[in-house]
Write a structure and sequence with these properties.
The chain has 13 helices and 9 strands. The protein has helices spanning 18-36, 59-70, 80-83, 91-101, 112-121, 136-150, 166-178, 194-207, 217-221, 241-248, 255-258, 281-284, 291-309, and strands at 48-53, 74-78, 104-108, 126-128, 157-161, 181-185, 211-214, 226-229, 266-269. The strands form 2 sheets. The chain has a 5-stranded parallel beta sheet. Strands 2-1-3-4 form a 4-stranded parallel beta sheet, sandwiched between helices. It starts with 17 loop residues before the first helix and ends with a helix. The protein binds phosphoric acid mono(formamide)ester and norvaline.
């Protein structure tokens, strides 16, 4: 029996059970297959998604907007100068207004508390499209991609190299929930948030997933069937770019690093990639890279969410 996700917010993967996450991934696979078969399904006919962006975006904006269109609905882009979250108007009032017009709200913010504030005050589902703390939509697409390529999660291992950032945090939650081991190789001072790590470790006790944070690249890569990296300076950290580059250079995902993982390991990157920094051309364009499948799966995974929460 399917679990009903109607009305649920997607703020953090910790809020979902393993069963619920797997149900979203199964729906994502199903929507992808049906689309490939040429089925036109207007599952969101007449529905409107309001999309708040405080930061730039390619994949998040286009995958949500194209997905809404594909399923017969409509998406409204609200850029940084439109709403001015928390400046022109209180976050709670924005949530209350948008709930009167739209069937769901997607938001990309700096402060995570703004996503939480929207969710607390909206009467429609709020989807986290990235905050400084988390990026759950990305990780649903990543997990869909890993399962497509590797068949399962339990007992398998992912390595994440670079910055203990929003993507790393959501990976910790996602892997913990589904029983996939994950090792983060990060420089000193760039470890993931301690509260996120301990909450994810709590989730991992249910599934046996091992969550490791190390400064040792080899330790992280050993036995990994998926190797993930992300930019060294996230949106909003541009001023720290130089110092971060210096700290993270040893954690670059290049061919030498990749050769220390399983020989058939897949390469993941949420994109945008800074080629020549956290990942080399050789690796991102190489035979093990699945980054564009991952990007495509954003659309399927997010529509799997929206068709269940709306
Ligand atoms: N991966 C991702 O969220 O891409 P955008 O920043 O382009 O939306
Ligand atoms: N960590 C990156 C992810 C971009 C999708 C950022 O926050 O900029």
């Amino acid at each position: 029996m399917a679990v009903s996700l109607k009305g649920r917010h997607l703020v953090c993967l910790h809020d979902f059970t393993a069963e619920e996450i797997l149900q979203i991934l199964d729906r994502a696979d199903d929507l992808k297959r049906r689309y490939r078969e040429g089925k036109q399904e207007k599952l969101l006919a007449g529905k409107t998604l309001a999309m708040i962006f405080q930061k730039p975006s390619l994949r998040t904006r286009v995958s949500f907007e194209a997905g809404m269109h594909r399923f017969g609905g409509h998406a409204i882009y609200l850029g940084p100068t439109d709403i001015q979250l928390g400046q022109r108007e209180a976050t709670g009032d924005i949530a209350r207004n948008l709930s009167r017009y739209a069937d769901a709200i997607m938001a990309r913010t700096f402060a995570h508390k703004d996503i939480v504030g929207l969710a607390e005050n909206a009467s429609v589902p709020v989807i986290n499209g990235l905050s400084d703390l988390l990026h759950p939509c990305q990780i649903l697409a990543d997990l869909q991609t890993v399962r497509e390529k590797k068949g399962a999660f339990r007992g398998r291992k992912m390595a994440f190299l670079g910055d203990g950032n929003n993507v790393a945090h959501s990976l910790l939650y996602g892997c913990a929930k589904l029983g996939m081991h994950i090792a983060l190789a990060v420089p000193k001072g760039y470890e993931p948030d301690q509260d996120v790590l301990s909450q994810a470790r709590g989730d991992a006790q249910q599934t046996g997933a091992e969550l490791v944070v190390t400064h040792d690249l080899d330790e992280a890569l050993k036995g990994a069937c998926a190797v993930y990296t992300d930019v060294w300076a996230s949106m909003g950290q541009e001023e720290e770019k130089k110092i971060r580059q210096q700290a993270m250079q040893p954690y670059q995902l290049n061919q030498k690093a990749l050769s220390r993982a399983e020989p058939d390991a897949v390469v993941l990157h949420c994109l945008p990639a800074h080629r020549g920094e956290e990942i080399t051309d050789e690796v991102i364009d190489g035979p093990q890279s699945v980054v564009f499948d991952q990007a495509e799966n954003r659309l399927h995974a997010q529509m799997a969410v929206l068709t269940q929460v709306i």
